């Protein structure tokens, strides 16, 4: 396979190192922001982000740096994804998305998506999922009949893999393809984690933006047993009177 200049899959055609990205992030880091991020992303004992390390870099700064280092090889991207520092992993995923967008053919895109799926251990917080899942896996699957990987991810005991399955459907929803998110939302009606209720509710709301009747049909069947958070997210754009009817179980 011919490797375009901008992809650098094997690391042999570029001298860019992961340490350069780490240094660039360190230069714009903030101790104050790191503390705020640690609280926001629930890094305390027993919380969903337990043990995650933040150095305090804003998302715009991370995306700016990712764009600058987009020619980094996947070998070096892997090193960032294995870092304990959250911003290293986020920037790595932004680089990966950039590579995917620039990839010139089917084989290149597939190799990037395969790499992503092999490295999901590093995609272990909700923002990491949300910045990568639909841009990579979702886009890749959007024109494919075989989407069985979504079932594998949704059956996982790992909540982040569950969320990847759900958020990936955003790429389908944008093309008015709702079958997978409706199926997954039904599957996760009673999921144990609030972050999954939010993800499903968010995607259902996106369905409603495009086809409110489809959303209402789903809600009429399920809203009384949906988790309250999922319901609130799903009906967020409804007129207030209708929202209250759903919340009070009077539909």
Plain-language structure description:
By secondary structure, this protein is mostly helical. It has 16 helices and no strands. The longest helix is centred in the middle third of the chain and has 17 residues.
Features of the shown structure:
251 residues, mainly alpha, 63% helix, disordered N terminus
Task: Give the SSE map.
Elements: H1 18-27, H2 31-40, H3 59-68, H4 74-81, H5 86-102, H6 106-118, H7 126-132, H8 134-141, H9 148-155, H10 159-168, H11 170-173, H12 179-187, H13 194-210, H14 212-222, H15 228-234, H16 240-247
Give a concise summary:
The protein has helices at residues 18-27, 31-40, 59-68, 74-81, 86-102, 106-118, 126-132, 134-141, 148-155, 159-168, 170-173, 179-187, 194-210, 212-222, 228-234, 240-247.
The description of the largest β-sheet is:
none
Instruction: Supply the helix-strand structural class.
Output: mainly alpha
One letter per element, helices H and strands E, the order comes to HHHHHHHHHHHHHHHH
- The number of distinct β-strands equals 0
User: What is the helix fraction of residues, given as a range?
Assistant: 55-70%
Low-confidence stretches: 1-7
Q: In percent terms, what proportion of residues is strand?
A: under 5%
For the residues shown, what is the average pLDDT? Answer: 94
What is the first-to-last residue Cα distance? 57 Å
Shape: globular
Number of contiguous helices: 16
**What's the Cα radius of gyration?**
19 Å
């Amino acid at each position: 396979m011919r490797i375009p200049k901008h992809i650098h899959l094997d690391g042999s055609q570029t001298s860019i190192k992961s340490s350069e990205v780490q240094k660039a992030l360190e230069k714009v880091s903030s101790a104050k922001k790191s503390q705020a991020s640690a609280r926001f992303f629930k890094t305390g004992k027993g919380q969903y982000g337990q043990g995650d390390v933040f150095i305090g870099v804003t998302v715009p700064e991370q995306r700016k740096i990712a764009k600058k280092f987009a020619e980094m090889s996947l070998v070096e991207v892997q090193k960032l994804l294995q870092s304990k520092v959250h911003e290293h992993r986020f920037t790595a995923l932004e680089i990966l998305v950039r590579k995917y967008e620039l990839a010139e053919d089917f084989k290149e895109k597939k190799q990037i998506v395969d790499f992503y799926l092999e490295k999901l251990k590093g995609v272990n917080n909700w923002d990491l999922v949300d910045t990568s899942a639909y841009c990579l896996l979702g886009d890749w699957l959007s024109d494919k009949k075989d989407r069985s990987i979504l079932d594998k991810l949704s059956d996982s005991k790992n909540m982040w893999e569950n969320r990847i399955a759900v958020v990936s459907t955003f790429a389908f929803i944008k093309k008015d393809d709702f079958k997978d998110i409706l199926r997954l939302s039904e599957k996760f009606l009673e999921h144990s984690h609030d972050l999954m209720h939010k993800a499903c509710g968010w995607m259902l709301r996106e369905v409603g933006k495009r086809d409110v009747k489809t959303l209402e049909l789903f809600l009429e069947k399920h809203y009384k047993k949906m988790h309250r958070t999922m319901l609130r997210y799903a009906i967020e754009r409804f007129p207030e009177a209708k929202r209250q009817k759903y919340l009070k179980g009077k539909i």
